[in-house]
Amino acid sequence: MAIVYQKSKGLTDVELHYCPGCTHGIVHKLVAETLEELDVLGNTIGVAPVGCSVFAYKYFNCDMHEAAHGRAPAVATGIKRVLPEHIVFTYQGDGDLAAIGTAEIVHAAMRGEKFTTIFINNAIYGMTGGQMAPTTLVGQRATTAPLGRDREHYGSPIRMSEMLATIDGAAYIERVTVTTPANIIKAKRAIKKAFQLQIAGKGFTMIEVLSTCPTNWGLTPVEALEWLNNNMVPAFPLGVFRDITAEEAK
Amino acid sequence: MAKELWKGNEAIAEAAIRAGCRCYFGYPITPQSEIPEYMSLHMPKVGGIFLQSESEVAAINMVYGASGAGARVMTSSSSPGISLKQEGISYICSAELPAVIVNVMRGGPGLGTIQPSQGDYFQATRGGGHGDYRVIVFAPANIQEVVDLMQDSFELADKYRMPVMMIMDGMIGQMMEPVEWKKPPVNPEDLPAKPWATTGTKGIHEPKAIHSLFIDPNESNDHNMRLDAKYQRIMADEQRYETSETEDAELIFVAFGTPARLARAAARLLEEEGIKAGVFRPITIWPYPYDALYQAAAQDSVKAVVTVEMNTGQMIDDVRIAVRGCKPVSFVGQAGGRVPTPQEVVAAAKSALGR
Known about the structure:
Largest sheet of chain A: 7 strands, mixed
Shape of chain B: globular
Number of domains of chain A: 1
Distance between the termini of chain A: 48 Å
CATH superfamily of chain A: Thiamin diphosphate (ThDP)-binding fold, Pyr/PP domains
Largest interface: A-B, 37 and 40 residues
Helix content of chain B: 25-40%
Largest sheet of chain B: 7 strands, mixed
Radius of gyration of chain A: 17 Å
Order of helices and strands of chain B: EHEHEHEHEHEHEHEEHEEHEEHEHEH
Number of helices of chain A: 11
CATH class of chain A: Alpha Beta
Strand order of the largest sheet of chain B: 3-2-4-5-7-6-13
Oligomer: heterodimer
Number of strands of chain A: 7
Shape of chain A: globular
CATH topology of the largest domain in chain B: Rossmann fold
CATH class of the largest domain in chain B: Alpha Beta
Number of strands of chain B: 15
CATH architecture of chain A: 3-Layer(aba) Sandwich
Radius of gyration of chain B: 21 Å
CATH topology of chain A: Rossmann fold
Strand content of chain A: 15-25%
Strand order of the largest sheet of chain A: 2-1-3-4-6-5-7
């Protein structure tokens, strides 16, 4: 019998701890498949964050280094500077990257650090139980914003991809989502391009993935996908925000 | 070999390079900025990595990453910056990675002053960050000793897979003294392999993970107990100290770093007055040489023990633990950037002896 589909060699056999309907699993798969397809698994060091994906170091089938909250880009900088021929990636959530670790991601991009960041934006703190994130939408409820995020009190959600795209050291920045098979294919393409540009030594690359959190959004998995499409995509437009190869081609 | 005149901070940086360090991450702060400045010029000459980070927080996490990748790596800072590094030091201790961290201390708390101080004794010797951990702490008293201890620092960091801190007051960083380079430079390629480093599976070994997460309380307890067993071994094997004229002394000064030099000057002044005073100088302040200090203090000749510190009295806690109440212990010092004078130390000694 022909094998038409099998789990990527880029993932271990450890059972994922993610909630039902959470899209972390899909993104893990896309990253793992990419590393396998590029034949770099044996040459890769991943950096796990603090947040829902804190256990990522158990799931990816490559060497892993778990960082303190927000510090993954600094840890990745240390690794990549010591091992410039290796593939290095960070996998970070919105609290990790856009709140406590804002300085680290901005300066990694500024230096043009040649690693890839997978940025999971689900507009909430998942691991700690649904608190407000810097990416929480105005009006969206969180356990620390029980009446919804108030613009007067907390401002509006931060768009990290747009912000980081203004930095010269960034080689590729794209925002994708994984709500439909078509979107998953696009997300895979984006992730692969980011790693390819890292391998080519072009600079800092980041793929932001709009992701669901059914548990803390209080929605079913299907409702969560719809909510993401209807609410998050308008606030965080999908697309390529920086592509150094397109600029070089001009 | 001929002696050369070196500024403390530059000697620290040169000694690290000679000790095989090929990776430095740091952030400017007075009075240690000559260390990153020196590194920025000289590290590339030996094929090493120098990176000025966006913060001390980032610097220590770059150290964490680089160490995990197998590099012989260091960072340096001064008191407020060392506070910022504590999070990372806690992680590095738990993940059991080697690193050397230099603290050229200035006056605190808060922004304090840029003048020399020893106000970070508690922070250095009690862990400093969250959780149960220790770091080996060297407290050199002159630039020659800084240079001599640097290679030992990296070797102990590798041996025990933990950070080694070198702390000194800002005076040692800023002054110039003759230095003799006694040890041959270390070639990093000759260093022992680090099989625990995450350098890629190469498709031949199982993936390795460097982490400090032990979510299961039993695993977490086991991890802490294993770390503690290591710390106990270090306490037994790695104490260092120096004594000067302590045998049959009437009074013992206890001091580390620059105040140990002041204490020796004070001891000479006391000798002119017919009082025999000796100096006990811990070189490691963790592990603290408790037993050796007890032996010195318990001599029948000793009537008083006086600690001399550039803070409001921090090491005195360890001195009291060591002396175990067998002799009276008192303190003399200045805090927040002032250096005590030998005359002040003499007066405190006489007071302790009731003269």
